[in-house]
Amino acid sequence: MGFACGLVGLPNVGKSTLFNALAGRALAAAENYPFCTIEPHRERVPVWDERLERLAKMAPTDNVIFAQLDVVDIAGLVKGASKGEGLGNQFLDAIRHVQAIGHVVRCFDDEQITHVDGNVDPMRDIDTIETELLLADMDVLERKQAALVKRARGSDKHAQDTLDYVTRFLSVLHEGKAIRTLSLDEEAYAMALSMGLLSCRPMIYICNVDEASAHKGNALSKHVEAWAEERGCACFTLSALMEAELAGFTPEERREYLGSQGVQASGLEQFVQAGYAMLGLQTFFTVGVKEAKAWTYKRGATAVDAAGVIHTDFAKGFICAETVSYDDYLAGGSQAAVAAAGNVRKEGKDYVVQDGDVMHFRFQVARGGKAKA
After folding, report:
1. pLDDT, tens digit, 9 for 90 and up, residues 32-77
2. Long-range contacts of range 347-350, CB-CB < 8 Å, 24 or more positions apart?
3. Each residue of 184-206: pLDDT tens digit?
4. Are 73 and 37 within 8 A, CB to CB?
């Protein structure tokens, strides 16, 4: 599993075109009129990883299982969505179930594609979306605050602690800032998520440009990139139309086509890289003749945490993790050669997993004896 990301944006910014390109097939309506997307569309997209393909060839196995990216195409948002305008309530409900937000920003001019505000202005569009997220969060918190005040007066410790968070979150929202601008520890972030707040989620700005600008961007996209960098948000540039042309291509064909256009990475690759970086995610692998598989884990996780990503029984009965770095595995050429070279390490529960580690877990099964994953 990778992560879940919701694609948001004003109507007619290329959001559904990009979603279809990422999905590799036409699932969402992509038409030149507002709200052509009504119901949120969901698709699970394989996260191609060249490292896993190389490892699979060494196993060897034809069963290659990549990590997955869950993408949700959410109805276009307009001013007033936090009060139910357009499809606002539907939008807000859908976005509460994702880990990160991909905001597709229109950075191209096209007289044939209408803009809900009459002209192209990416900074205005960003402000519209951000404002609606903040207003929606304010509404949630103000309603919670009224109920918590009464309970806190009755010496309810949990209510008082929660009220402290609500007060802190509201103060930053009233300053016109997103909750993500706060330095939240794990407890505070978990509290914000449990309240269904939107502006705490990491934001990835996706500048949709014309095909001719896909390799370098344009003046509009560069303005967005500078703005995002100042706020510590991820941002990258692509052409949704070019991405649509890549649908159905093999990874090799995709790289060749992008290279001919002067583009280094596909939109999906940039999306995944930005999301993994912002969410602190990394990848470890399991490799055998039955399958080669990528697993996603939180940076800083231990070996027993990684075992639990595969199955809770692996973590409960953990004995050790036979571990090889990706570079050592690649240099060895096979599991047997790596073992012969003495590069297989037996790591205990507290070992901090490194990105690209190839791992086999030994664990105690319920009825005694040992097993290997």
Report:
1. 434 444 456 788 888 889 999 999 999 999 999 999 999 888 766 6
2. 347/303, 347/320, 347/321, 347/322, 347/323, 348/303, 348/320, 348/321, 349/302, 349/303, 349/304, 349/318, 350/302, 350/303, 350/304
3. 999 999 999 999 999 999 999 99
4. yes
Give CA–CA dist 222/86, Å, rounded. 30
DSSP symbols for 229-291: HHTT-EEEEE-HHHHHHHTT--HHHHHHHHHHTT-SS-HHHHHHHHHHHHHTEEEEEEE-SS-
CA distance 89 to 75: 10
Burial of 80 (0-12, 13-18, 19+ CB in 10 A): middle
Question: 351, 306 in Cβ contact below 8 A?
Answer: no
Per-residue b or e along 338-366, where b marks 16 or more CB atoms closer than 10 Å to that residue's CB: beeeebbeebeeebebeebbbbbbbbeee
Token pair, residue 156, equals 């309810």
Task: Using pLDDT thresholds of 50, 70 and 90, give the confidence band for residue 296.
Answer: very high
Q: Which residues, listed in sequence order, are joined to residue 302 by a DSSP beta bridge?
A: 352
| 188 to 110, 137, 139, 140, 166: CA distances (angstroms) | 43, 15, 19, 16, 10
Query: What is the reported pTM?
Result: 0.84
Looking up tokens 């009755």, which residue turns up? Answer: 154
Q: Please state whether beta strands 345-347 and 318-324 pair in parallel, antiparallel, or not at all (unpaired).
A: antiparallel
Judge residue 74's burial from the number of C-beta atoms within 10 Å of its C-beta, 0-12 exposed, 13-18 middle, 19 or more buried.
Answer: buried
Side chain identity, residue 132: E
Give the type of residue at 343: N
